[in-house]
Amino acid sequence: MIYDVIVIGGGPCGLATGLALQEQGLTYVVLEKGGIVNSIVKSPLNVRFYSTSDRLEIGGVPFLSKDERPTRHELMKYYQSVVSRQSLEIKCYHKVTKIIKEPECFTLNTINQQGRSIHYQAKMLVIATGIFDNPKPLNIEGEDLPKVIHYYHEGHQFYGQRVLVVGGKNSAIETAIDLYRNGAEVTLVHRGESAYHGIKPTLLMDIRNFIEKGKIQFFPQSKVLRIAEDSVLLGTPKETVSIENDFVFPLIGYQPDSKMLKSIGIQMDESSLVPMFDKETYETNIENIFLAGVVTGGTTNKVYIEDGRFHGAKIAEVIKKRFRRMEISNNQQLKKES
């Protein structure tokens, strides 16, 4: 079977795109390398999202959470419900390993959870892979040690451990606070002057209190120079400091899978990793390949689920019109030939 459209990525924006294609009567399948909304699955167990539940809805399906801002568990259950109720066509645990542009369609090579190769074909593609699967690297010695962890789930297992958190945005601050509350010895390293700017108001009072009372050791305007098995070397404005350490959480952000995008010819801004696409249609510089969701923002942190969930509807509308034009053109050609 050659689908009209294949959507790569089963996060909220990919699911929303699949629903929009379904509404337009197009044949499609969503390919997801993990389970649905994998980025949310990887988020901290007890996280409460800053967005309100109504701003996370997709497909016109209402999302009612117990409180105004939903929990991780509530959000996962909501998206499960949407997939089930709308009979969304999705293949989980199908990792796309290669995209081949054929004269009439695209061929996608995938590997499923059993390690079996499966091929899919479609006339058009929508890439909605997000950025959460690709942590920004520190690009330093020791970054590949087992003690370095790029995703934070919960703090219990770090009780009594010497833990260093790198970053100054919400995820890093929230992690540092939770680690301290779970009995870890916490050090926070941030390249900025302060850890108090641009974070959720709900975090501000706690992080200020913990830093100013010395409960969390804070190194502003500093960076990690090297990670060793039992220590970390820091570069501070005054001197180079070595501190004893058991675990490191580099929570400095995430980025698109630039390797995959470039492999099919999509151009990107090298500094921000924002892909080239039409702001009205979301079509890339490669004909019939579209982008949806957070991937369109590169590393700028300017596109979130709240915005990206609407991309799919516009894309589906553009694709439907294109198929109509192609059908009219083919019919006219047949009439001429007859």
From TrEMBL:
<dbReference type="InterPro" id="IPR036188">
    <property type="entry name" value="FAD/NAD-bd_sf"/>
</dbReference>
<protein>
    <submittedName>
        <fullName>YpdA family putative bacillithiol disulfide reductase</fullName>
    </submittedName>
</protein>
<dbReference type="InterPro" id="IPR023856">
    <property type="entry name" value="Bdr"/>
</dbReference>
<dbReference type="InterPro" id="IPR051691">
    <property type="entry name" value="Metab_Enz_Cyan_OpOx_G3PDH"/>
</dbReference>
<keyword id="KW-0560">Oxidoreductase</keyword>
<dbReference type="Pfam" id="PF13738">
    <property type="entry name" value="Pyr_redox_3"/>
</dbReference>
